[in-house]
């Protein structure tokens, strides 16, 4: 049954259709068994196709493509689930899967149907018996919401009727019971710091728009950004132990985000130092400006149960891209003490937590798009992002093994492409592992596997340093 509902695109969703800012989300699902396409299609018909965004096509209201709207339509799942032919005697299955996903990033979406597709590769690789690859246009929703929606289509492997469990964010104690003069002074001081940090972050954002660029380095594209719209992206991943990350977290009294940022800084420092010609002593430029953009969701992500109810009852709910940008400075350099990488990462994150940068950049983007149009908004976003080296994100995943319509999942590896940066690093947790996902422009970064190895090796070095301190 087709509901002729019409809904205009939000300003943020229109931004992802701006010229040279055509962003897509890739979600790779490694399966422990071969994939039955008929079972997958049946499952999608009962769940995902009931979600308004996955059963609506994008329609231009005018010839200039300025006015856009979602219109519900009849969805033929056969048009969205793709099972390619392949040579069963191929010499290198891992390379085939990697090349296939890279090829996907060069193909334009078909706008005559809802903007998503699922490719099923029954190719046994070193990490999975088969691989499913979702490609979803970013205008359908922000990354965290879309990953949560996909998880709502899964069930615990140990209990096929139970939804996956995802760690809940625990906010800090606000000290509601504390009173008195010193508590009031602390609150005033925090408010002053919040205002000051927000002002400074906005000044840096404006400076980046006008003139401030990252230091030219081997991981950065050209100054005007990567010509990404039709250029291939190479997407690689590597699994590391989440327990190792938690060991460092507990010993250093930090968060997983602190540790993840720390090992990334360490891995990038190793990689860049090698590129500049020396592995053992520092060859890095002094005072190197190296930053990452982080997209921050401003609307609370719907719970998996709520998303499941939405699909089962075909109910409406608030959905879309409600995201702001945060610019994170990376400390690039060789440290004598490996633990300094995570200490500096914690200091950076603590400083960014005490700022309204994400809310302000979101509000600015909304204002610009409404007043000047999404093409101007896209040009501004592209100009800012092209002056920053990379994009970075970290998403929390299920605590237990899950199955996708009866197919046990070995790993999850989401990422994004279409933005004007040569490097995107994404972390995705799943049970007791953390998957590092890199999406790179191969014309800039020729060996992403080595970069993955540098980050993995950095985790090992930092973990060993923690254990050495504990044993002394």
TrEMBL record:
GO terms for biological process: triglyceride biosynthetic process. InterPro entries: O-acyltransferase_WSD1-like, O-acyltransferase_WSD1_C, O-acyltransferase_WSD1_N. Pathway: Glycerolipid metabolism; triacylglycerol biosynthesis; Lipid metabolism. SUPFAM superfamilies: CoA-dependent acyltransferases. It is found in: Cell membrane; Endoplasmic reticulum membrane. The keyword Transmembrane helix applies. Residues 319-463 form the O-acyltransferase WSD1 C-terminal domain. It catalyses: a long chain fatty alcohol + a fatty acyl-CoA = a long-chain alcohol wax ester + CoA; an acyl-CoA + a 1,2-diacyl-sn-glycerol = a triacyl-sn-glycerol + CoA. The keyword Membrane applies. One of its GO terms (molecular function) is diacylglycerol O-acyltransferase activity. Its main location: membrane. It comes from the Eukaryota. It is a single-pass membrane protein. Keywords: Acyltransferase, Cell membrane, Endoplasmic reticulum, Membrane, Transferase, Transmembrane, Transmembrane helix. One of its GO terms (cellular component) is endoplasmic reticulum membrane. Residues 54-260 form the O-acyltransferase WSD1-like N-terminal domain. PANTHER family: O-ACYLTRANSFERASE (WSD1-LIKE) FAMILY PROTEIN, WAX ESTER SYNTHASE_DIACYLGLYCEROL ACYLTRANSFERASE 4-RELATED. In the N-terminal section; belongs to the long-chain O-acyltransferase family. This is Diacylglycerol O-acyltransferase. The lineage of its organism: Eukaryota, Viridiplantae, Streptophyta, Embryophyta, Tracheophyta.
């Amino acid at each position: 049954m087709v509901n002729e509902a019409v809904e205009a695109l939000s300003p943020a969703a229109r931004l992802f259709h701006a010229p040279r800012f055509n962003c897509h989300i890739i979600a790779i699902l490694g399966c422990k068994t071969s994939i039955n396409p008929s079972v997958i299609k049946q499952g999608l018909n009962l769940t995902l196709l009931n979600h308004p965004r996955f059963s609506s096509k994008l329609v231009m209201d005018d010839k200039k493509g300025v006015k856009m709207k979602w219109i519900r339509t009849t969805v033929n799942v056969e048009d969205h689930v793709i099972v390619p032919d392949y040579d069963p005697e191929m010499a290198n299955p891992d390379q085939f899967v990697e090349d296939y996903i890279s090829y996907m990033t060069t193909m334009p979406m078909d706008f005559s149907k809802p903007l998503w597709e699922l490719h099923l590769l029954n190719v046994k690789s070193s990490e999975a018996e088969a691989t499913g690859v979702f490609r979803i246009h970013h205008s359908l929703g922000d990354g965290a919401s879309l990953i949560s929606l996909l998880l709502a289509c899964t069930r615990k492997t140990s209990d096929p009727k139970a939804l996956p469990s995802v760690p809940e964010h625990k906010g800090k104690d606000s000290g509601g019971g504390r009173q008195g003069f010193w508590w009031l002074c602390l609150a005033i001081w925090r408010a002053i710091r919040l205002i000051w940090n927000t002002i400074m972050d906005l000044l840096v954002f404006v400076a980046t728009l006008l003139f401030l660029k990252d230091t030219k380095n081997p991981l950065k594209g050209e100054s005007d950004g990567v010509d990404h719209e039709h250029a291939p992206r190479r997407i690689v991943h590597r699994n590391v132990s989440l327990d190792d990350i938690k060991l460092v977290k507990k010993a250093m009294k930090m968060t997983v985000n602190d540790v993840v940022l720390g090992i990334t800084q360490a891995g990038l420092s190793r990689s860049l130092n090698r590129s500049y010609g020396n592995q053992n002593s520092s060859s890095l430029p002094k005072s190197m400006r190296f930053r990452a953009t982080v997209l921050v969701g401003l609307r609370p992500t719907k719970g998996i149960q709520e998303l499941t109810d939405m699909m089962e009852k075909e109910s409406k709910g608030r959905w879309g891209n409600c995201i702001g940008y945060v610019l994170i400075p990376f400390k690039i350099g060789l440290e004598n003490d490996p633990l300094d990488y995570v200490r500096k990462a914690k200091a950076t994150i603590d400083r960014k937590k005490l700022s309204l940068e994400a809310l302000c950049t979101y509000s600015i983007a909304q204002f610009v798009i409404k007043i000047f149009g999404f093409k101007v908004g896209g040009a501004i976003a592209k100009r800012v992002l092209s002056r920053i080296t990379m994009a970075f994100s970290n998403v929390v995943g299920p605590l237990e093994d899950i199955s996708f319509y009866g197919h046990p999942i070995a790993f999850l590896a989401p990422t994004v492409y279409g933005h004007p940066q040569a490097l995107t690093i994404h972390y995705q947790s799943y049970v007791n592992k953390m998957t590092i996902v890199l999406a790179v422009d191969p014309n800039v970064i020729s060996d992403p596997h080595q970069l993955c190895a540098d980050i993995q090796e950095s985790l090992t070095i930092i973990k060993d340093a923690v254990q050495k301190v504990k044993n002394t």
